[in-house]
Write a structure and sequence with these properties.
Strand content: 25-35%
Helix content: 25-40%
Strand order of the largest sheet: 2-1-5-4-3-8-9
Structural class: alpha+beta
Shape: globular
């Protein structure tokens, strides 16, 4: 299933870092930024997470929710969140089912070779549950949160 702008975002429920269930359907009425990243506490993923953290004041003023999704465990997410003081929710997708549904897991190029893995991508979902913007492949993790904020501010 392809993610299409203007279409309903696929629903999901995943555990957060503290073992609580987070369901997309419960966030209806808010803008939701779902960003998919390969691994906690790696250079690119840390830059991206810290970018969302550094833009948190503006994101919060807009009333948006940020959900970071990776295959990492609850324990790994707790350490990552605490180490970098991340104010948003990190979700666990160990079997990569949600990532696959959102096109965030599949074939990608890594060091010149085709491999299967997590594709750094982001989906902005509007208050009506429809996809506002889909960044299919994020190449500059450090700059990406600011680009998301720009689109979010205009939405």
């Amino acid at each position: 299933m392809a993610i299409e702008e203007g279409k309903a975002a696929p629903l999901f429920t995943l555990n957060d870092a503290d073992g609580n269930k987070v369901a997309l359907k419960d966030l209806k009425g808010k803008h939701v930024v779902v960003y998919f990243y390969p691994k906690d506490d790696t250079p690119g993923c840390t830059k991206e997470a810290c970018g969302f953290r550094d833009n948190w004041g503006d994101i919060e003023r807009i009333g948006a929710v940020v959900l970071g999704v990776s295959p990492d465990s609850e324990e790994s997410h707790q350490k990552f969140r605490d180490k970098y003081d991340l104010p948003f929710t990190l979700l666990c997708d160990p079997d990569r089912k949600v990532m696959t549904k959102y096109g965030a897991y599949g074939e990608k190029m890594m060091y010149g070779k085709k491999v299967m893995g997590v594709i750094r991508s982001t989906v902005l979902i509007g208050p009506n549950g429809k996809v506002v913007k889909h960044w299919r492949r994020v190449s500059r993790a450090a700059d990406h949160p600011t680009k998301v904020l720009e689109v979010l501010s205009a939405a």
